[in-house]
Specification:
184 residues, 2 domains, 2 helices, 12% helix
């Protein structure tokens, strides 16, 4: 067979002219609701509202986090309040969708949230890499729990009530401050 140079070449796509990219703008929220539990953002961070454009100045690290929702509300929340809200959202999501696993790994929570809404459905619970210093007694309501992960927390002891969890197959509590184990 002979090589035909015309058959091997592919036509190049036509070059399109480069268009300038539009400038990014942040538009002001027009429907901010202010009530007892909703606070507006600081007036220092908002300027030029007459044009509908917001110029945002750098936020100091000490200030609380701002949670925004669909442009209707602006809520100032502390870091811990944000973590609690995310934890509760994960529990509600698990409850609504009928999930049997809850992963709160690395949420930096100090106490275990209320797990009673998930008491009958939860099989897997991961509370690793948090700041939980006492064994969470909220776990004892989870009668069908099979896998429990509590790694990397400052927990010092395991209560003997752990025996209430009859279906528990995997229990990981490595890298804690535990010196003794409960009998049984």
């Amino acid at each position: 067979m002979q090589n035909h140079p015309q058959l091997l070449r592919r036509p190049l796509p036509p070059k399109l002219p480069k268009l300038p990219l539009p400038k990014k703008r942040v538009y002001a929220e027009t429907q901010v609701t202010e009530s007892d539990n909703v606070e507006s953002t600081s007036r220092q961070s908002v300027s030029n509202l007459t044009e509908g454009i917001v110029n945002i100045k750098p936020i100091k690290r000490e200030e609380s986090h701002v949670i925004r929702g669909e442009g209707f509300k602006t809520i100032n929340a502390t870091r811990y309040e944000t973590i609690i809200a995310m934890t509760n959202l994960a529990i509600i999501n698990c409850q609504i969708h009928g999930r049997n696993a809850l992963n709160l790994k690395g949420f930096f929570i100090m106490t275990c949230p209320d797990l009673t809404p998930l008491a009958s459905q939860l099989i897997y619970l991961n509370l690793s890499f948090n700041d939980i210093s006492y064994f969470p007694t909220e776990i004892f309501c989870l009668k069908n729990l099979q896998l429990l992960f509590l790694r990397n927390n400052p927990i010092k002891e395991i209560p003997s009530e752990i025996q209430q969890l009859k279906f528990l197959r995997v229990f990981s509590i490595a890298f804690n401050l535990i010196t003794t184990l409960p009998p049984g």
